[in-house]
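Input (structure):
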């Protein structure tokens, strides 16, 4: 056991504006940011203030180290001033320590050494990091552990990619069911009429076409009505939603530590649709009774009127025609967004009675049930393989398994592109 100050030195170097920008993934460590396909509105106007990280240095986000926001730099690059950069001494393999620092046990230590007023905003400064104790296997054993874990990560990444590909195919199949039902109805003999919008096409002649704002209330409830500092809520941000589902367990936050964007109060029957980063297609129907769901102002909250079946509205907003219309009317390349006033003007076709809407909902749910079951199974398998990976890493880096005799086999070829599947769905950046 040695303190981190015996294994790493502090690197504070600025003034290298020509180096590439690096970012931290909570799953896979530090990576080069794809500036050509940047999907975040971030202007790198003062790159001379960014910190230089040399290939092999460890960089960590001071405010999110407790979540595992740490990793070795794959190339010489720049990280945000909010990062700490440390250079390994010869006896330290930075990849080994990246694995060690992301274990649950070590992150508990990070919490002990971090400082701040609010727990989830604590910072781990260099002065505290260098005092933390760490395990120190011999350098050859560190190298061996890293080689083993990278090979296992490659196998796990292939598994996750295969499951994601399956989920994409099943979701596409479900979307076809939804699209047909909410645009054509269930009666094959019904007559059709042109809608008021070319993108809607023809709709059943007895359906009504009105702007979305005539069917719903937009952003009906605000967190501003709350005053209790002890109020705790589950925060729905853009990164936690994909079309029709949540991607992770929602974080619980105290009112006094609420992010400035946590303002939209959700109720059962609401549908939320992202108005920023619209390429993510973040749409979710709230199908639970709760008084503690708060969404980011990056969502528009649609509360259906009395003549609208809430679940039917949820399916309409998930439909390909609606989503494509949102994308077509979003402004911006790096950070596409749509004004809520524009969203409210979209023409939407609805059956005239709630009973007909409910019949369509029942049809969609019946046809989609096997697909939903398969999707949930695939998601559960991804979650389980991640838990297995966490246990495997913890056992390897703490010496619970002896890997000194391990040798890679013909199937243990590792590539950086292959390991990319370990990341979450494009939303796990800690920047």
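Output (sequence):
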């Amino acid at each position: 056991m040695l303190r981190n100050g015996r294994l790493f030195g502090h690197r504070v170097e600025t003034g290298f504006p020509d180096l590439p920008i690096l970012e931290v993934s909570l799953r896979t460590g530090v990576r080069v940011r794809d500036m050509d396909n940047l999907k975040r509105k971030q202007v790198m106007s003062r790159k001379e203030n960014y910190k230089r990280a040399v290939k092999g240095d460890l960089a960590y986000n001071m405010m999110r180290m407790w979540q595992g926001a740490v990793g070795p730099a794959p190339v010489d690059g720049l990280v945000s001033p909010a990062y700490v950069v440390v250079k390994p001494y010869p006896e330290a393999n930075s990849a080994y320590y990246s694995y060690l620092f992301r274990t649950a046990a070590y992150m508990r230590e990070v919490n002990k050494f971090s400082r701040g007023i609010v727990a989830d905003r604590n910072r781990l400064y260099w002065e505290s990091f260098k005092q933390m104790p760490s395990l120190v296997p011999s350098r050859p054993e560190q190298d061996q552990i890293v080689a083993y874990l990278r090979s296992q990560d490659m196998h796990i990444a292939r598994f996750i990619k295969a499951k994601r590909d399956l989920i994409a195919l099943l979701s596409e199949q479900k979307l076809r069911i939804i699209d047909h039902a909410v645009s054509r109805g269930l009666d094959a003999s019904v007559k059709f009429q042109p809608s008021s919008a070319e993108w809607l096409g023809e709709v059943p002649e007895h359906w009504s076409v009105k702007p979305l704002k005539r069917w719903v209330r937009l952003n009906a409830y605000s967190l501003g009505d709350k005053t209790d500092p002890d109020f705790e809520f589950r925060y729905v941000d853009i990164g936690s939603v994909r079309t029709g589902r949540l991607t992770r367990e929602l974080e619980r936050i105290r009112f006094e530590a609420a992010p400035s964007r946590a303002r939209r109060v959700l109720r059962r029957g609401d549908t939320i649709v992202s108005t920023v980063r619209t390429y993510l297609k973040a749409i979710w129907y709230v199908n639970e009774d709760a008084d503690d769901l708060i969404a980011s102002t990056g969502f528009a909250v649609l509360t259906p009127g009395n003549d609208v079946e809430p679940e039917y509205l949820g399916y309409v907003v998930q439909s390909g025609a609606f989503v494509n219309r949102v994308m077509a009317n979003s402004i911006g390349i790096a950070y596409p967004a749509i004004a809520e006033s524009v969203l409210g003007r979209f023409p939407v076709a609805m059956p005239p009675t709630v009973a007909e809407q409910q019949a369509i909902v029942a049809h969609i749910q019946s046809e989609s049930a096997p697909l939903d079951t398969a999707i949930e199974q695939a998601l559960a398998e991804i979650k389980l393989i991640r838990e297995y990976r966490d246990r495997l890493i913890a056992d390897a880096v703490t010496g619970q398994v002896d890997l000194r005799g391990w040798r890679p086999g013909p199937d243990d070829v590792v590539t950086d592109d292959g390991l990319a599947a370990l990341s979450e769905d494009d939303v796990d950046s800690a920047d």
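Notes: The domain at 189-350 is CATH 3.90.220.20 (Adenine-n6-DNA-methyltransferase TaqI; Chain A, domain 2). The chain has three domains: 1-136, 139-185+354-431, 189-350.
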